[in-house]
From TrEMBL:
<feature type="domain" description="EGF-like">
    <location>
        <begin position="24"/>
        <end position="35"/>
    </location>
</feature>
<protein>
    <recommendedName>
        <fullName>EGF-like domain-containing protein</fullName>
    </recommendedName>
</protein>
<dbReference type="InterPro" id="IPR035914">
    <property type="entry name" value="Sperma_CUB_dom_sf"/>
</dbReference>
<dbReference type="InterPro" id="IPR000742">
    <property type="entry name" value="EGF"/>
</dbReference>
């Protein structure tokens, strides 16, 4: 019942929303009472995976980069700023995904997907068909997920990202100004 939502004091994070019973319904990839946890952290296959508290500019990749990644790789990087007005910009420096002997109708054997991204583009194709090189968060976080094809024989590195924080300040309900 919608009238109850005004009585709820819980703050759902990472795209979660308040349900009628004043609990959070978490978006993909998140869990916890306020959607504050990475739901799929247990199967991470690389020590670089997890939450990255973004304060300044930086780089992120698999710990094995620039060498070949493990055959079966699952990793999520949650780039997050404690500044609620921050927007995170990500440059894809290198995709490093398996695009060899791709199944019919597919653009890649590996999947790299951004969640919480401004454009909501879905999986990023490794064949260059959409030429995605930049991502921008819709809020103060962005979740990057890599799922590799465990049956691939290709030796690929996995992605290399650079990121930066842009501080935004609201001026009006519908207008935002960039303070960078």
């Amino acid at each position: 019942m919608d009238y109850q939502l005004g009585k709820c004091t819980i703050d759902c994070q990472h795209g979660g929303f308040i349900q009628d019973n004043c609990s959070c319904k978490c978006a993909y990839g998140f869990s916890g009472k306020r959607c504050e946890l990475l739901a799929k952290a247990k199967p991470f296959t690389d020590r670089s995976c997890g939450v990255i508290n973004v304060q300044d500019d930086g780089m992120v990749s698999l710990s094995t980069f620039p060498q070949s990644r493990a055959k079966a790789t699952f990793c999520q990087w949650l780039l997050e700023s404690s500044d609620p007005w921050a927007v995170i910009e990500v440059d894809i420096k290198e995709l490093g995904l398996d695009g060899e002997e791709v199944r019919p109708g597919s653009h890649c054997n590996d999947f790299l997907t951004a969640f919480g991204e401004h454009e909501q583009i879905g999986p990023i194709p490794c064949d260059g068909s959409r030429n995605v090189t930049k991502l921008r968060s819709a809020a103060n976080w962005i979740l990057l997920e890599l799922r590799s094809d465990p049956y691939s024989n290709a030796k690929v590195t996995g992605p290399l990202f650079s990121y930066s924080v842009k501080r935004m300040q609201p001026v009006h309900r519908r207008h935002i100004i960039d303070l960078s």
